[in-house]
Amino acid sequence: MRVVTGAEMRALDQRAIKEIGISSLVLMENAGTKVVQLLQERFGTLQDKRIHILAGPGNNGGDGLVVARHLLNHKARPKVYLTHDRDRCSPECQVNLDIYQKLGGELVVINPLDGRRLRFSLSLADIIVDALLGTGAEGPLRGDFKEIAKIVNEVNRPVVAVDLPTGVDATTGAIPGGIAVKADYTAVLGFMKTGCLFYPGRSYLGEYEVLDIGIPHALADSIERYLLEPTDLEKLPERPAWGHKGTFGRTLVVAGSLGMAGAAALCAQAVYRGGGGMVTLAVPQSIVGRFPPNEVIVKPIPDTPEGTLGSSSIDALRELLDGQDVLAIGPGLSNRPEVKLVVEYLLQNWQGPAVLDADALNVLTADFVHSVPAQNRARWVLTPHPGEMGRMVGAPPQKVNAQRGTIAQELAAQWGVTVVLKGAPTVISGPERMYISNAGNPGMGSAGMGDVLTGLIAAFLSQGMEPLEAAALGAYVHGLAGDRAAEQGMRGLTASDCLAAVQLIIG
Asked: d(Cα 317, Cα 302) in Å, to the nearest integer?
């Protein structure tokens, strides 16, 4: 599913009107009709239901007026609250206002606002429709809009937002003034908006559905931003009947240190769960006894007195690189200075696909990255959390979270790599194309989850997928596995639970 920013959505609207010749009134009619269909799906028969529509002066308010008109045909009891006088409404909004009034629809102009009266009236509604502001709104809610949003949230009635809840930034998902309408359902019009996926805005949408209002999808072909969906699982690499362990790839996992053997074990096992053919796990020799016999080939590597890889490890690692298809490096390595030598050596001498996580990310600087040939970097997948991303781009984690899509894509373009910015939602970006994964849940906020993700991405790389697609599918499967595991309970969810659920997702 393609995802657009607020500005891109407005441009698509205008192109549909000016280049294709689709009337703005037609788009508004389509939007209102689809919203009414959504109301029927969610609430059943609309007959005799008191449905109160809050309509702003722009085209979002016009959508709401179309909704109100069609509700009359369904023998509902619509009541429109218009925030501005007619002469301050957009031309399209005025047209639909005139039609609604000619049909005898009930209308109240709440300018100036009588908050007590509005609160009492909305408290009697069966459903409230938020058609106050659309994608063109920017900045914090002010004046009457702020007060109306507060009242809607206080009356505790079912709320359906048209396009996006009033107060949510259509691009960033920010709530600039700290106040936005809290919807139970959101009818997203035309295309999914980035602000409907990024937090905190996502938490204001409730359940959502993207409604086709007639804007030709071909107009958005140049926008390379997508929400991952169940149909994307069809991109999983095939398992030919004649396949063997070599067919599905050999992965070298370089991970672990004293006290961090678990990270290495989770990552290696995740490669197998993701369908990888053979996994070699290179760990400091002082911890090799921590790994029970299983499918993973564990190789002890000379280490430092502190139980980490270091300069003495390089010769043994050099030998292990031969014959491998994918390198996964970072989980549990520790951030001791000698680890940096190992990571830099491997990245300077490995030309195949690589997944970099955790302590491998800590050694990356722009100067080092650009010292590696661009064709090699193009095969790297970086998997930072917001703190690690913040270090790489020189920004606090709060800014990273507030601009997840922009920051991930900028780093991907500057360094020529694929970036998986972990969090809610996870953003997977190359220099030009971006994917967003909405899968996953708060129960996955526990140690080891990132190690499983690294292994899954390595598994898909080992089976021949391109870095961006492997990263996107790895992140999506990881989130879906977490959701499946959480069916037994979200609290107490562990990385091992997620690991065990992977096979249920990818079969």
From this structure: 9
